[in-house]
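User: Some background: our group keeps a shared notebook of sequences we're curious about, and every so often someone picks one and asks for a predicted structure to add to the entry. Today it's my turn. The entry only has the sequence so far, pasted here. Could you supply the structure so I can complete it?
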Amino acid sequence: MSNLNYVEDNGFNYTFGGKGNPIIVLHGLMGGLGNFKKFLEKFPSLGYQVFMPELPIYSSSLLDTNVKFFAKYINNFINFLGLKNVILVGNSLGGHVALVHAKLFPSQTKALVLTGSSGLYENAMGDTYPRRGDYEFIKKKTQDVFYSPEVATKEVVDEVFESVNDRKKVLKILAVAKSAIRHNMAKDLPKMNIPTALVWGKNDGVTPPDVAKEFNKLLPNSKLIWFDKCGHAPMMEYPEKFNDTVYKWFIENKL
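Assistant: Of course. Here's the predicted structure to add to the notebook entry:
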């Protein structure tokens, strides 16, 4: 990712690159920079300025570990950088944060790309989560997020395993999960007329296909694009196809 820079400034840790229309990439609860690696590498070369801030999931107070606080954090980030007409691209929890941002700050949200987004329903880890100390269990649960288990590399599994074996992180993870359920967007979506691309895996077991259909039904200005043989993270399972799909939608919508 040589065309990208990493910055720590004013309480924000973020990666950025490129010049042009601003895109902010929002990772999921268990996700990080690596989840959007190909996206972050590609879009600066297509005339966009891409930012990926680290959401303060583990660094904020327990009271602030919720979707609404993260949406306000992103708005502070946008204002700090002086960005206008921002496109938000979010996976899972990141999609939910993007939606809440669009609700709270519509004039600062130009468009949304949501993939495997929470906000209506999610089945995070089932009733058995988290079983600490059991690496094989965590490995299986991580693999289940994807259609192809090999996408859950040792690096990905190790990161999840480390999180669920850190008691403070587990408390934060559970707080965010509860907050995501509390912040159901069903009543808000029909009022949000922002152009929205819904890029969804047909085999997503975390936010199943019915969730994508419901998003598409409730959002007045949305387009639903399916990925076959794909789970909860299309940008990881089919990075090139994901990039092409999003770029094509950007062109269609003059973004």
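Suggested note for the entry: Residues 167-182 form the longest helix (16 residues). DSSP finds nine helices and eight strands in the chain.
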